[in-house]
Specification:
The protein has about 70 residues and is α+β, with helices and mostly antiparallel strands. The chain has one domain. Helix content is about 25%, strand content about 20%. The chain has a two-stranded antiparallel ribbon with strand order 1-2. The longest helix is centred in the N-terminal third of the chain and has 17 residues. The protein is flat and about 35 Å long.
Length: about 70
């Protein structure tokens, strides 16, 4: 797990160096077919986020669950 954290940190730094309009990130792992995993190997989604790209970003990745984004 520590290696995953280091990889995320490295990629985050690279993205921030190259893209000055990125101010946040979502990190996601689809663990199991019921959770949406379609590729049967480990992978992590690091999603750069920009200001004003969505009207209300509260809840982050919880938005994939109907009714769970706003809490």
């Amino acid at each position: 797990m520590a290696q995953c954290h280091l990889l995320l940190k490295e990629m985050r730094e690279r993205i921030l160096d190259e893209e000055k309009d990125v101010f946040g990130f979502n990190v996601g792992i689809n663990a199991g077919a019921v959770a949406g995993r379609t590729v049967m190997h480990s992978h992590i989604h690091l999603i750069p986020r920009r200001r004003n790209e969505v009207a209300d970003p509260r809840g982050g990745v919880r938005g994939v669950i109907p009714g769970m984004q706003s809490y």
